[in-house]
Design brief:
The complex is a heterodimer of chains A (367) and B (282). Chain A is of the alpha+beta class and 367 residues long. In chain A, 24% of the residues lie in helices and 34% in strands. Chain B has helices spanning 4-32, 50-57, 59-93, 98-106, 113-124, 129-136, 151-175, 179-187, 192-220, 224-230, 237-245, 251-278; strands at residues 36-37, 43-44. Classes of the chains: A alpha+beta (367), B mainly alpha (282).
């Protein structure tokens, strides 16, 4: 798991920041294919919200509806309390960083950045100083006179960002802006983009299919699946308390344990522990890092079991092990890579780390 | 990569073709332009610059050249005025009808030039469709004569014939503009008209230049439209060349005019290519 840089908001904290953008029950179909169903989402002022989803989940369409490049079939969007959705894109106080940057090839870097201000008929002096500031902010001052075709992908990315931010939008939309960059530059830009967002205090809506990226950058993640919101929560919460099996699997690795609750005791293969759940079938998500080697004598309330090591996958600082219990149940666990145990392992986990999740298979079979 | 024999086999035939049917005739033309005609109507193969002096000495040649350029310029302007909006509409506004409309623009190119020129003759003539109609609705009492056998008829016909040639490169240029640039422009606050002026138009300039070059060069050298529809006031430079090579039997002077035209056109093509390079950003 990538390190998680998190804002100072504990899970469960109630936000009091006023909402900037409200999406109400937006739906959209392309022909007979529904792309978005019943999306409702609030974006707070100064928030970094990531719309995360696989390809085909509708995330780009949702962003394009906010930007005004697509029209929703139903529902409405409010910004600062006023209807946004009837306005054409050029009247929205929203700017976009496009996936392939979309810099104007016939204009220099400087002219690209100044485009919105020139259209808005900002005075010559103000235009010059704001463009200069914006270029300095993304460290592109040295390339002011270059044509976009003469600068690298990462630099084009910065120019696209400056071109959008120089207009001081209330909301910035970013459509997979880092997807064309190589891995190292990408990680560097993630951090830069996040700190830039803190600095300017503008709300960002960031679209990506990369869950690590979403974790590193976001205040909140809106996980989109087959056109529906699966879960909206802070990265910490969405990781530690996934609502559905899909969320648990999509964000990080997990073990899904299917069991049966009877009289406050859950039985899952040969494992059992005490839960506060009603009787019936149940599904748990148990993160690999929450399974550990049993430390000492049995005791506490940890669930203890024994499993045989099957495979180990080296990940650098950590290693992912697969261990099989006597009853055939295979579990993944994450350990520090210097651990050299093999053969039969004595393992345990805390019942509180097994999170009951909603089964997502009903969704999977619906289309 | 390929064997020598293979490369020779594929390059020699076209080179021979070009040498035999293009370079050799041009070389002959070039020689002729320095020869002369004896009073007994024989070609005298001794070198002289008289033909080129004649070009500048006799007014009618330069006058006709300027008239041809003026006609070609008008044809160019009208072809662009018709071709650009058409290309714009097809590229941005036509939606699913695009391919069908594109074919409608192309189909006239399959019809013989001669047929299209004759069609205008029947439309514009004194007993033609247009005059008959105007008299029928009593807009005029007698046929309008300026319609046919005038520079107007030539410009009209050539515009009709060469508009597709202006349209095609403009359409290609518009089709090549990434659509996200237009979205980016809207996103940055520019309404459609400003987006056109600041993004679409500058990016389509290479197409406009190519289209203008086609229309101008092709109509500058045209001789059929002025022959059929131009009348005495609509004569163009190619008609003079034709008569010099024909009835007047002065091949050397005809060759000199042709060579002058060739140099002029090559100069134009060179200029147009330089400008297109300057306006392309890829």
């Amino acid at each position: 798991m990538a390190s998680v840089i998190q804002p100072e908001i504990a899970p469960g904290t109630v936000r009091t920041v006023p909402s900037l953008l409200s999406i109400h029950e937006v739906a959209k179909s392309f022909g007979p294919t529904p792309v978005l169903r019943n999306i409702s989402l609030d974006i707070a002022e100064g928030e970094f919200l990531t719309i995360l989803g696989e390809s085909g989940s509708g995330k780009t369409t949702l962003l394009r509806i906010i930007g005004g490049f697509e029209t929703a079939d139903s529902g409405k969007i409010l910004m600062g309390g006023e209807r946004l959705d009837p306005l054409p894109p050029y009247r929205r106080r929203v700017n976009t960083v496009f996936q392939h940057y979309a810099l104007f090839p016939h204009l220099t870097v400087e002219e690209n950045v100044g485009y919105g201000l020139r259209v808005a008929k900002v005075s010559r002096e103000e235009l010059a100083s704001r463009v200069e500031q914006a270029l300095a902010m993304v460290k592109m001052t040295a390339y002011a006179g270059s044509k976009p075709s003469k600068i690298s992908g990462g630099q084009q990315q910065r120019v696209a960002l400056a071109r959008a931010l120089v207009n001081r939008p209330q909301l910035l939309l970013l459509d997979e802006p880092l997807s064309a960059l190589d891995a190292n530059l990408r990680r560097q830009m993630q951090v830069e983009l996040k700190s830039l967002q803190r600095e300017v205090g503008i709300s960002f809506v960031f679209v990506t299919h990369d869950q690590d990226e979403a974790m590193v950058m976001s205040d909140r993640i809106a996980l989109l699946r087959l056109g529906e919101l699966e879960q909206v929560a802070s990265p910490r919460e969405i990781y530690s308390r996934p609502a559905t099996a899909y969320t648990a699997q999509f964000i990080g690795h997990t073990n899904l344990l299917r069991g049966e609750v009877k009289g406050g005791i859950v039985r899952c293969h040969s494992l059992s522990w005490r839960v506060d759940l009603p009787d019936g079938p149940v599904l748990f998500s148990l993160r690999p890092e929450n399974i550990r080697f049993a430390a000492g004598p049995l005791g506490s309330n940890a669930v203890h079991f024994r499993a045989r090591l099957r495979t180990r996958i080296f990940h650098g600082a950590t290693e992912l092990l697969q261990a099989e219990c006597a009853d055939g149940l295979v579990l993944s666990l994450r350990t520090a890579s210097y651990d050299n145990r093999h053969g039969d392992l004595d393992l345990e986990f805390a019942p509180a780390d097994a999170i009951p999740v909603r089964d997502s298979d009903d969704l999977k079979n619906r289309n | 990569m390929f064997s020598r024999a293979y490369r020779a086999a594929i390059t020699i035939p076209p080179l021979l073709w070009v040498a035999l049917f293009l370079l050799l005739p041009y070389a002959l033309l070039f020689c002729y332009s320095f020869w002369s005609v004896s009073p007994a109507q024989m070609i005298v193969r001794s070198w002289t610059l008289n033909n080129y002096r004649e070009l500048f000495r006799v007014n009618v040649y330069l006058q006709t050249l300027f008239r041809s350029m003026w006609i070609a310029a008008r044809v160019t302007i009208f072809s662009l005025l018709l071709g650009y909006p058409l290309a714009y509409y097809l590229s941005f506004g036509a939606g699913v009808k695009k391919d069908f409309l594109y074919q409608l623009v192309i189909i006239p190119l399959w019809v013989s030039y001669l047929v299209r020129a004759y069609a205008w003759k029947t439309i514009l003539g004194s007993d033609g469709v247009l005059n008959t109609l105007l008299q029928y609705v009593h807009l005029t009492s007698h046929p309008l004569n300026f319609l046919l056998y005038s520079p107007f008829a030539v410009v009209l016909t050539l515009t009709h014939i060469y508009t597709p040639f202006a349209f095609l490169p403009i359409y290609a240029a518009l089709e090549h503009i990434p659509r996200n640039l237009i979205e980016a422009s809207h996103d940055l606050g520019a309404p459609p008209l400003q987006t056109f002026r600041r993004v679409i138009l500058p990016l389509s300039i290479p197409g406009v230049l190519a289209g203008a070059t086609f229309a101008f060069v092709l109509s500058l050298g045209d001789f059929l439209a002025p022959l059929l529809l131009g009348g005495p006031s609509g004569i163009m430079i190619s008609n003079i060349v034709v008569s010099l090579f024909g009835a007047a039997y002065n091949w050397p002077l005809g060759a000199a005019i042709s060579f002058g035209m060739l140099v002029l056109v090559i100069g134009l093509l060179f200029l147009s290519e330089r400008l297109e390079k300057k306006w392309s950003f890829r």
